[in-house]
Amino acid sequence: MKQKVQPEDFVVEELTSIPLKNHGPFTLVKLTKRYWNTLDAIDYIARELGIPRKNFARAGLKDRYALSTQYLTIKGRWHRTFKTENLHMIPVGHTQRPMSPFFLRGNHFMITLRDCTAKEISCIEHNAPHVRMHGIVNYFDEQRFGSARHKKGFFARELARSHLQGALKLLLCYPYKEDGKQERHFKRYCHEHWGQWRDCFLVAPARYRKIISALIEKPRGYKDAIKTIDRELLNLYLLAYQSHLFNETIREYVETLTDDPVRIPYSLGTFAFFRDHPHEQCTPDRMIPLLNEKSQFSGHLGSIIQSVLDREGITRKDFALRKMRFRGVRFKPSQRPIIIVPRALTITDPHTDELYPHRKKISIRFDLPAGSYATLVLKRLLAS
Question: What is the pTM for the complete model shown?
Fold first, then answer.
């Protein structure tokens, strides 16, 4: 089975509730893209149009390997359409408030799976009634962990443990397979020439030059170098680590509540799903915290959280980042439902795949709440 053979195989549309006005201090724009992640697309559009990056606001992040539609606001009045290869932005109205996750109701997905075997189609058809009725465990999927895809660890874990040099090395020294040629060369060079900052600057891509410049000025000033990183990006790094801790906690929790979980490996561990109906303690309205220094936990779930923290070598107070003290960057408190149920899940009959004529394709549609992952729904549908 193949996913995302072409962007049109994975279509996602934001479902928003932001009210439109005839007049307002913000312009709402509709952005359709492929082969771009959201942050890079906004950066590119801002540069091309000469609009400060800070004037853009968004509700969510969309993957680069999809045909996605989402809504942004631009501070001020904007009337122009922007179009280039794989990016199309059009104004649709005005709002009183900037776009934010508060206005994101969820996402609608239209997914085509290609090159499917008879066994894979059978799994989907067998598992669909269970997923419709009982939903899935609401893990964070691979996309959330881009900053750790080198599998060397989490930047935010090192930050929480005040290992600032180690945190920077995770950003600067270990290439990802998705990195371009220049970025891979730069990271290998940094690994081999750590501390030779003037030399590193000569091969640094633009996105790393502020960090390296800070280290040239103050060679062991790791805190100052980290503070040059965009705050939104730093908060995403923190959220990635919170998400990892959530996944580990919920996996262990599910495994204590069922004797025969469905286990699915992923790059940072294993997902455990209920094979039959979820345990009575796991309902769509049961919320589990993403951890920060003020999190309170007790009982059976609390003991699991503590075991995860012990294994990671961190304590609750480490989440306060007291040695950093940078405004606007913190482990934010939030709650996440342990179970989500896809809405309006429909699956087409298998058809001949025009790209793989000797195999079948199948299309799946559903809606998910904001922050939940369509790829996890697919994994559960395909689990044997």
Answer: 0.90
